[in-house]
Amino acid sequence: MKRSLGLLLSLALAGAPAAVSAASRVPGITSSSRFLVYYGQDYGPTVLATLKQANLVVLHPTNSAQLTPSVVAELQGAGVKVIAYISVGEDPAPLDAAGNPIPIVGNGQGPVRYTGGSTGYDASKIVPANGGVASFYVDQLWNSSQGQYVSDGLPDVNTNFGGFFIWPNDDWRWVLNEQRIGGVPSTSLANRSVAGLKQLAGARTSATDTNRTHDFGFDGFFLDTLDTAGPYVNAWGYYAWVAPEMQKTVKFIHDSYPGKIVFANRGTFFFNPLITNPTHGIRPYQYSLRPYIHAALFESYALDSDASHTGLSPYLPVNRDNYAQKLMAEANRPDGFTVFSLDYDMGRGAALSAQARQETAIKNGWVEYIAPTGQLDTLGTYVATHPPAADTAAPVWDSTAAYAEVINPAFPDVPDRVGVQSLSLTSRPGEVVVHWDVARDQSLPVRYNIYRSTSSTFSNPVKYAQVNFEVGEGWSTDPTTKFANQYTLTGLTPGTHYFRVRAEDSASVPHEDTNTVTLSITVPTYVSNPNASINVNGDLSDWAALTSFAVDPQDATASGDVADWARAWLAHDANNLYLALQNHVSITQLNAAFSVYLDTDNTRSTGFRGGGDQFPVGAEFVLLGTSLYRYTGTGLDWQWTLVGTAGFSWGGLNAELFVPRAWVNNPSVINLFFLGDNPSLGGTTVDAYPDAALNPQGAVRSFLYQLQ
């Protein structure tokens, strides 16, 4: 009796590790390393001699009867890292007598299609056809003549290569893990002869073993056909809704084989935040592979396999200016990966190969291989005989802001983003977030050094060397206006601080760039008025001894303007939060023109950030006149729920209010700003307090209040 795929998967995973650390770069590999991809049949002495000259090779174990465990052992003995090809997004099924691929029957629930709309991935919208094949086959191909996706009840086939397109769910992960050359008796894989993860990674019986049904002992896996999850709209062979399960599959491989190299082929869309599939609202970057891979391949970067392209690839501009920089932003992170590139000579000659080498290894720091033909069945020697010159230059700054065109290189040039790009305060005393973009270099990874001075002449700076940076806030959805990287400095004293960011490579003698781009920001003193004794009566005499926020000039003088901030205070006692307002003109009604936005959880990533993402805070609460509202939206939409009405009093230029601290979640710190929303009530001027609140480059954009 054949066991179900689901049961076999649970048995296969029973011994998987509970927790595994994030992946990292391939050790010992640099842009000068030798790299080969070979899918040929011949493993005679000449081929082996060439492979032994490489530092890392990718081989196709299912392709050649001559590729045995002993060959892998021989190459490893020569110091070569040997990586095994495996298809994760397509099933290279065996063929019947008529030449048609044979699907796995499995649980009979497949093929499946996706019926979700444009609001994002919804697993419940994956509909099984119960057509008598396994649950991981898909049936939703784009039909260009009909202008729509069609389903015929049969698994979709890649007519170029003969395999089935895959939704890589748990059942498929079992197949990837268990399939073997020679088949797996008494299972759905009995008639299939494809090497799976267990066979590829398993320990060899000996270094001289020539039995191809035994375990090979490869150093890792080359994951092909990731692009089945491609987000491209109305395009044959891409299924955007596959992305979440593809991420799970790569994570499964990483977690199940922690000692092995996970090498991703193609799938650059997983690293490009700009790309969203509008049909389903799926952004592949949300399902990034970065934590689970050690390496990624950029295929056909400068020289593609299309013989009709006699020069550099027509897609090189978009590869270089759009995809490469976003890929490198991800690869260069502290939990990043090594980037390899595969170009094709196709008879184009040494001059173009030299140009490709310049683009990939010298400019980008990638590990390059130039194959003789598109079949990968012969070995090229150009890269081995043309090593790059020693790195003598500092990193060069670039930009991740280029547009997301996939095949149209005619988009406007984007200026380089050199050095520090912006500074922002957090809601914690003495913290400044430094933002910058990307630099490229021959010797990766690029490190970043932050310099800080309290002098406008930048004398005696403090250096923060090779900071452990993170993804820049907002970059994961908008790299055109946000920046790839950020680092938070803590413990800074109140006053103006000046910052620079410089890039440093990983050469044996490091090179650091010398840019002098400088930005400054003023670290404020936190206001705190604890244990206040406030009588809310419109008379501000009991506030005279308390610390206020900055004085604001008269700047809302147009007809109809009623809110023109002059000064404000906060105070608190054990139960209440008090607010005093002083206006430049008499307050006749404390209405919604007087609005105060309160960030109570110390992060801009939650709360309302303004309809144009222009607020300096993420506001959990807003006080509109005397009404306190709690934010219930997703960040940019205007969605609020009434909490209650504040206690209040006003008279002349003054107003006082109070709310229970519990109404605003009893915070320890509040980051706030004031908005005189006069246009909402027929006036003219939007009076921000502080004045720079809505200016992204402003030195002081909000006030900080600390509750003790």
Automatic annotation (TrEMBL):
This is Fibronectin type-III domain-containing protein. SUPFAM superfamilies: (Trans)glycosidases, Fibronectin type III. The keyword Signal applies. SMART domains: FN3. Residues 412-510 form the Fibronectin type-III domain. Coiled coil: none annotated. Keywords: Signal. InterPro entries: Aldolase_TIM (IPR013785), FN3_dom (IPR003961), FN3_sf (IPR036116), GH (IPR017853), Ig-like_fold (IPR013783). Residues 1-22 form the signal peptide. It comes from the Bacteria.
